[in-house]
Structure formats: structure tokens, C-alpha cells
Amino acid sequence: MKPALSLSLLPVLLLTACMESPAYGPPEDSGLVGVRPFPAEGSPCQVIGENDLTNQFLDDSATLVGCPTAEAEAIAARTGEGGRQVGEIGEWVLFSVPN
To answer: What is the pLDDT of residues 36-50, one digit of tens each?
Structure first.
């Protein structure tokens, strides 16, 4: 019976091995305050809240958004929607995205 049990776990082990973890940590690992995903749930980018590292980038007419440096497609999307890169902190690129 033990061989059957071992074989029954094989699909689970293979699926676990195929799942990739992000190549970056959360904004908080870089000293940022992550508020919520941007532009929608499931996005690697985050609206970034105010703290001593970000207050110089805040503007009432724009949203401060951070995207992981490893997420080239997300970075291109923020630029494509009018975002202006304003800084890079840790593993995160910061954009001022017009409201």
C-alpha cells in the first residue's frame, strides 16, 4: 500500500514544483507602505502610501504606484497609461500616475 500512497502524491508534488514564487518581496520589505493592488486585484503593482521615503513623490493630482523591478510588463503598462517614473526604492519602481 505504501507505493500506491507515494504515487498518489506525485501529482501534488509536481504541481507544487511548477508553482513559482514572485522574485520580489512585498513593498514593506523595501520600506514602503503597500495600500492595495493597482490597477486591480491580482496586479503586482501597488498603490503606495505616505511615509518618510515617499512623501517627496506625493501629489494631489496623481496616485503613487509602485511596481516590482522584476515585473517589466507591469512597468511598461504604468508608463503606457501616462505614469511618470519618479524613483526606485529597494525592489520597487515608483510612478506618479495621473488621477
So the answer is: 999 999 999 999 999
**The three cell numbers locating residue 28:** 514593506
Backbone φ, ψ for residue 77 (5° rounding) = -65, -40
Q: How many CB atoms lie within 10 A of CB 74?
A: 19
Cell numbers representing residue 36 in the block = 492595495
Tell me if the pTM is above 0.85.
no
What residues are paired with 98 via a beta bridge?
Answer: 62
For residue 3, the Cα-to-chain-centroid distance in whole angstroms is 42
| Structure-block grid coordinates of residue 64 | 503613487
Say how many Å lie between the first and final Cα of the chain, rounded. 62
Maximal CA-CA distance, the chain: 66
Residue type, 18: C
